[in-house]
Amino acid sequence: LFLVRMATGCLKWWLAKHYFEMDWKAFFDTPQHFSYGQLWTGFYFLSIWFYLFVSAANDLTIAACGLAGFKISENYHFPYFKRNLSHFWRSWHMTLTRFCRDYLYIPLGGNQKHTRRNALIVFLAIALWHVVSPAFVIWGLWHGLGMVVLFQWRKFCASQSVLRNLSQNYPRLTYATSMLVTFHFVAIGWLPFWGGHPQGVSYFLRLISGNRWHLFVW
Known about the structure:
Elements: H1 2-20, H2 24-29, H3 36-67, H4 85-89, H5 94-108, H6 115-130, H7 134-158, H8 161-169, H9 171-195, H10 199-208
Helix pairs in contact: 1-3, 5-6, 6-7, 7-9, 8-9, 9-10
């Protein structure tokens, strides 16, 4: 089983290296040199590359530790196929998010009180755990605000019989739509995470404006 896991990790690494790796620095530093279609292609390729890279590292770590007699927790469980941001974070870097849930979110009040404030604090903490920088603060706020919107959306859907009936009558369509929205929200949020600030934010502005808006041109 561990050898299969190691082979899977190697396959993911090989796919990331040979099919999805691009000149990311050029995309972030000189996006004006690329067409709008190329910017979107790079955006999707980078999203897939990043997942393959981190999940391959997780597979290889689990396999190597298992062969040595140690058990390591899963960290990634098909996160890009989840239907909302909450489910995404239950499947991405799971050891970190469980730690923040148990030792930060729940002590702050969890889902019982100040839920929105708690979500913002948790994701800012996760961002600063990675790197103390403006780009990571932007990324943390993006996900924190995303969780706030999700909380409000759930309340709104619960009060709307039309939306409840739509979800019940067309579950596959609802799931596919939710999954696509979640994936794009997460992937757009990666831009400052990967490219820094202001490059990542400028890339985002170009994507949503037809390659017209930008912060700076290098």
